[in-house]
């Protein structure tokens, strides 16, 4: 016997039934006639459990991305820096095309700059150290200077021969450290390329999706949306100013210093210029670690004009122009933190995070200050609202007494 079914019934039998959404514990308790207080307690416990689950998820994400965290942070800050250029390229290439152009140019610039610094500080530094060893030898050009200082140190028990041996030992140690630095930089090239890869991916993502990320954060974070927006704006501003003030100003100082070294006839001016750019990352003293000793050595080696010009050039251009003209123009006049806070952020960041603390320290310090400012503003607003309510309550009895009886 054949049973004929309609097409509708056949479709209903062939398609699996869609499972209904499971109600929450609070909805189940409320449908079963539970007291409103117990339903509210269940809803609160669900929110707490979801909050702890979200916190655990964030901890897992943080733990996973820690090995490439430097690349992610660098890519985010680079996106903030090139944002004005990216917006100008949008009418020509479109959003994704402009992002690709900005990322490509930034990647080539980073590779060229990093490779040049590695070559200058490694190969050129080792060659310069060997020249210094030969100059400090018995027949070297620095023997007269050693003899001059040897007569001074002889009063303290250090003969000229002992001074020469110690200086040669120091020069050989510097050459060994330069060679080891070059080897370490080459060995770290793989991790550097990995960090650069993630930095470029992050830069492209931030350029294309920053507004969306900010809006989703305002919806997800347990803060008022205007507070979250202010924190994101502060992070963007501080990240941009920190990277510009640290990296770009350091490159400008290295360029000015190289010009000064070339004018004064210093051997290997490119090496000393690269060393000056790297020394600009050191808080407080910075570039003076390089151009001041170079000027002093020129003075002591019977080059008074060159030594005086080098010291004057370093003070005028490497320090004054870069720190008081270029840096404020890049970061803006209102973007500087107090000097005490800046030094604390730099030294503390280096102590906690290492070399990357030169960027992470100021960024985290500025975000912490922004949170404290929001807290102060909220507390002041709350106190003002409470004062208004108190005055309103005080005026109510007075107005009730003065009103005529109805």
Keywords:
406 residues; mainly alpha; 2 domains; 13 helices; disordered N terminus
Count of helical regions: 13
Amount of beta strand: under 5%
**H and E order:** HHHHHHHHHHHHH
Mean model confidence by pLDDT: 75
Helix content: over 70%
Look at the helices and sheets and give the structural class.
mainly alpha
> Globular, elongated, flat, extended or rod-shaped: what is the shape?
elongated
Q: Mind telling me the C-alpha Rg?
A: 33 Å
Question: Quaternary arrangement of the chains shown?
Answer: single chain
Question: What distance lies between the first and last C-alpha atoms, to the nearest angstrom?
Answer: 92 Å
Report the count of strand segments: 0
Number of structurally distinct domains? 2
Q: Could you walk me through the main structural features you see in this protein, from its secondary elements to its overall organization?
A:
The chain has 406 residues and is mainly α. The chain has two domains: 69-220, no CATH class; 223-377. The protein contains 13 helices and no strands. It has helices at 7-14, 25-31, 36-65, 69-135, 143-153, 160-187, 189-220, 225-264, 269-279, 288-300, 304-331, 339-353, 357-402. The protein starts with 6 loop residues before the first helix and ends with a helix. Residues 1-22 have low confidence and may be disordered.
